Automatic annotation (TrEMBL), chains A, B:
Entries under InterPro entries matching the protein: Creatin/AminoP/Spt16_N, Creatinase/aminopeptidase-like, Creatinase_N, Pept_M24, Peptidase_M24B
Domain of life: Bacteria
Domain Peptidase M24: 169-376
Signal peptide: none
Alphabetical list of Pfam families matching this protein: Creatinase_N, Peptidase_M24
Protein name: M24 family metallopeptidase
Higher taxonomy: Bacteria, Pseudomonadati, Pseudomonadota, Alphaproteobacteria, Rhodobacterales
Residue stretches making up the Creatinase N-terminal domain: 16-160
Length: 393, 393
């Protein structure tokens, strides 16, 4: 078998493991079990659509991480992780979606065999994939262990991107630009929305600048007209209508790294209220990007946006940004800091966020967003370079 | 606002609610909270990519179900569910991915307001999306309630499809056929795999027979050569190679309904061992389909396949099929019955399964699968009509 085509070199994975171990030490964890597929991939390189069954990575205070999952997926682990065969553990297929046997029974037995059945064990209590039953099964089968909530422990280590990761983000951003160029070129009144999506997904996967495209953690969302008041509708077969706005929230993806980029398209002459919202969003983006510098907080960026909105007569207080990078469905965000008033996360160079001001009225929605990189000094850099405006055709 | 474009009529939703209520009664549940997005959609019509935050449907013994989720997604609920405004409940955005506030605090308060804080409440303990923390928060905030595991309660009611659902499955199957025709036509040695996927996704979304295509709950998986020993790898930018097999596991999707169809393509002259595997899989499919009739069990289908495999010298005992229908990521299976030796689920007309014999050696993988419908009598019907063979080019 050929060696895995790892996205990053070993020093990069060692850096990540050191960061996680330092935090485990600070929290006095002997063992960390992570089920979040993004965290699994970030630490080990594991890649595959197998997260619909229980799987995870076991991190101890010493030694290599252990990939643990369904036996048939161990073949995928061998092809994608940097650790050797001795660090790949598969459980019997009879545990799969079987109410009478839980995969966590196998995990508990392995933790026992590692001599850590009475350890302090971190688990991701509020993550997709680590279910309530998974937790209760571990608790029952490891009665002497102390299970500690380690939700976000790894996610927070992912906040500052390495130069190698930023290279991946730039490739994802180039794909996002290519996707925007494509839908803007092809969209016209009367076109069925699913036909437009066919082109978007094709552009996403073909990639850009010689780099192939991966699947994004969220499918394209492109509601039109009054439906655009609902931010998370996907698509249907209806025709695009004149005198309506459609916003396109989507992201290119390069080897699981994302750089979301939203724009809004109006066919005809936009109503004045949309033009006013556009002015507020563009000014708010500029204010937020100017505020997004090392030493400022995530809350400062939100405040810069919301204060600008207020000056334009728009009251808004929902979350307007989140960190992005490596991700798997159902979310391309990293689920740590938020651009939200009062969020005290201090910005550092190398952090990347999807800064996403949106204005949703009862009868239309407008999104103009940027993926931004916190620089060594000065305002943040937008990774994509497309006009920051309401597009009109 | 225009009325939601519901996939099904009200009698169909009433039928579903009656089935769920009967099971609630049998289990003496006063309230059922379901977070599985497939169950939410099946019961209410709700559709949107918002399942990356906590949301759900509340079912009581009387009255309409209540959609509950993030306030901004209530706008999506208004556009997609059959219930009225009084049955849509949004929680404040400050609960979103905020370690200091959990959305389940809001849900617990609402259950209290419904007068059901001391009720027997069913929750989906082993589902993606209902996290360990969600469970503990409900338990803490509803100390007088009895939380009962209702994993799969709704899923089991979905097992027998109505005629309207079978129509959707047939439309999905037509899209699956269209996808297979497309990749078989376009694939050639030297082609970059992501370029091939671009066409597959485009075909999937354009749809077939005038019916638009939705996103499938799993992205295309198409590993080649030795990588095909790993069943759940997705794709990369590598070129397709001569003298290698690639299996394509994918599904068309019509309004969230799936009909997966896998085939395998070999460039050149397949080795004898692959031809032998092909013969076993084709004979096993035939034997399984012949066994898949009303009154037989899911285990009987698996036994028919595995006995045929054994007669061909192949030992296999992993799960070889599961129910399919309406689904959201990360799994297009319904997670109830399994085609697995000993599964006692009795087959009934209207059940639909992805019957998926796969043979994976250390150096190649072969999948030829069918989505099948249990008929009133006689063997099952394969919903797709494409040659049941190893494709060779």
């Amino acid at each position: 078998m050929t060696a895995p085509d790892l996205p990053f070199d070993r020093p990069e994975y060692n850096r990540r493991l050191r960061l996680v171990r330092a935090e485990m030490e600070a929290r006095e964890l002997d063992l960390l079990f992570i089920e979040d597929p993004s965290n699994m991939a970030w630490l080990t390189g594991y890649d595959g659509w197998s997260f619909y069954v229980h799987q995870g990575v076991i991190v101890r205070r010493t030694g290599n991480p252990i990939w643990w999952g369904r036996a048939m997926d161990a073949a995928g682990a061998r092809r994608t992780v940097w650790m050797g065969e001795e660090c790949i553990a598969g459980y019997d297929d009879s545990h799969v979606q079987n109410p009478s046997k839980h995969a966590m029974e196998d995990l508990a037995a392995r933790i026992h065999d590692l001599g850590l059945s009475a350890a302090r064990i971190g688990v991701e209590m509020d993550n997709y994939y680590f279910s309530a039953r998974a937790f209760l099964t571990l608790q029952r089968d490891l009665p002497n262990a102390v299970l500690v909530d380690a939700t976000g422990l790894v996610n927070w280590q992912r906040l500052v991107k390495s130069p190698a990761e930023i290279t991946f983000m730039r490739r994802a951003a180039a794909i996002s630009e290519h996707m925007v160029d494509g839908w803007l070129d092809r969209a016209e009144p009367g076109m069925a929305k699913n036909d437009l999506v066919a082109g978007i997904l094709s552009d996403a996967v073909r990639g850009a600048d010689g780099h192939w495209g991966d699947y994004a953690a969220i499918v394209p969302m492109l509601p039109s007209g009054a439906d655009a008041a609902a931010p998370h509708l996907t698509w249907n077969g209806a025709a695009l209508q004149p005198d309506e706005a459609t916003f396109f929230e989507l992201s290119g993806c390069y080897r699981r790294y994302h750089a979301p980029l939203s724009r809004t398209l109006y066919f005809g002459t936009p109503p004045d209220e949309m033009r006013r919202a556009e002015a507020a969003v563009v000014a708010g983006l500029e204010a937020g990007i100017a505020a997004a510098r090392p030493g400022a907080t995530a809350g400062d960026v939100a405040a810069a946006l919301f204060d600008t909105f207020a000056a334009h007569g728009i009251e808004k207080d929902s979350r307007c940004g989140y960190p992005v990078g490596l991700s798997y469905p159902p979310d391309w965000g990293e689920r740590t800091a938020s651009f939200r008033r009062g969020d005290g996360t201090v910005l550092e160079p190398g952090m990347t966020f999807h800064f996403m001001p949106g204005v949703w009225s009862d009868s239309w929605g407008l999104e103009i967003t940027e993926t931004i990189l916190i620089r060594e000094d000065g305002p943040a850099e937008a990774l994509c370079d497309r006009p920051r405006a309401l597009f009109v055709k």
